[in-house]
Structures are given as C-alpha cells and as structure tokens.
Amino acid sequence: MTQETRPDSANLGFGIDIGGSGVKGGVVDLSTGQLVGDRIKILTPQPSTPAAVAETVAQIVAEAGWAGPVGLTLPSVVTGGIARTAANIDPTWIGTDARALFSAALGGREVTVLNDADAAGIAEDRFGAARNVRGVVVLLTFGTGIGSAVLNNGVLLPNTEFGHMEVDGKEAEHRAASKVKEDRDWSYKRWSEEVSRVLSRFEALLWPDLFVVGGGISRKGDKWIPLLTNVTPVVAAELRNTAGIAGAAYAAETGITP
Ligand code: BGC
Hints:
Strand 5 and strand 6 form a beta hairpin. This protein has helices at 50-64, 98-105, 116-127, 172-176, 178-184, 188-206, 243-254, and strands at residues 12-18, 22-29, 40-43, 70-74, 78-79, 82-83, 111-115, 136-142, 146-152, 155-157, 166-167, 170-171, 210-214, 234-236.
C-alpha cells in the first residue's frame, strides 16, 4: 500500500476473532471494514483455557505493534464482558470475566468482548452483504457450530444463539453446521435440505427480510444457496474470514457492548 492510499490512522481499529481452531487478528479500516496489512493467525492453544488464549491474544497484538483499544470475539454468549457459555471452546470459560482477563493481558488497555457471530453480523450489516438492507437481517455462520446474529435496521439484538434451537427434535447446529456435512460426507444437496429445514424454523419465528450466510462454506455459496427452499432471500456473506475481526474492531470503536 502506498503512503497516499493509507487510511487515516484515526480511523483504524483492531479486532481479534477467537475460534475453536484459530485466533485471528488484524488492523481494520473502520470506514470500509477492510483489513489494513496482514491478518495474523495463531492456532488456538489446546486446551483453549482462558489463560492460554489470553497469552495468544497478547502475542498477536504485540506482533501487530498495536497500542490502541482492542475488540475481541468469543464463540460464547457474552454479557457485561463475562463469557456465559462455551460450546466449542474450553468449558472453563464459563463465568470468566473475559473483558478483565484480556485487558490485563494487554497492559490494562480498553477492550470490548462480544459473541463471534454478533461481531460478524455487525460487520456484514455495516460493510458487507447487508449494508444497504433495511429491516430485519439474520446472519448465520456455519462452521463447527452455527452462530447467529439478529439486527433490526442496524441495531443488534445480542446473544441470540439460534444454533442451539431445537429443530424437529435436534439442535439446529447438530443438523446443519458445516461440520455435520464434513463428518457425514454429505453432498451439498443433502446438506442443503437440513439448512432449509433450520432456516424455515427461524423464518417462521422471525420473518426476516434477509438471511446472510457466513463461515468457510459460504465461499462455495453458489453450490448450495440456490438449492435452499426458503421464502426469505439468502445471500453469502461478503467479508468472509475477516467479518469477525472487522466487527470486533468496529464494536470496540463504537462502544457496542453486550
Ligand atoms: C456457540 C455460539 C457461537 C457459534 C459459532 C455456537 O456453538 O454457542 O456462541 O456463536 O457456535 O462459533
């Protein structure tokens, strides 16, 4: 990037997306949601205890040379900075004051912690696939689990956790996470039947204007989104693997704190 096109440093933020397999961070241009420079990725320590993850977070921030506030995601319900659940991360996160932990690991600086799908939803709503959409947007991330974010005219309803809703006797994420497709070696056609079933339940309860589908499998959206049988339009997320980072950085900057 040349000096001339470099964004104004006042408009930069830093986000870290903590997942079951990787911890990814980077500097974000808060006017576009794009990364400025490299995405830094370190494998999630195993076991993924709070202390071990906090150390990884500190390593990423040090490697980036970032001194300002940091936004972080967890694959957990987060209220008041405290992790309340731990579906795909070490169970010792439950009850951990994540905000205090990360702040201490980062020399006492200001941090914001929110659910990973909520962060991705914020980013897609501000900068990505839902940026020009008014009304109710439901973002779903398909990965090891299913994450959900609900926004009404850009305002987030945090911690919706629709991946754990029971659909025809089974948790939605046990039916239709992309991990289920992998584990069972399903075709896109077979898997899309389960996704349609889950989305039908969500749309019967929420009547959204748009579904945005994210997670790694959204990169191949053309193989399965056209197969879905739902009435609500479904589009692939646009920010792909940087949505969590961008949303976390944006939340830290704007003070969205669930
Ligand atoms: C967790 C959510 C998370 C989602 C995606 C689910 O199992 O309960 O909090 O957003 O996985 O990581």
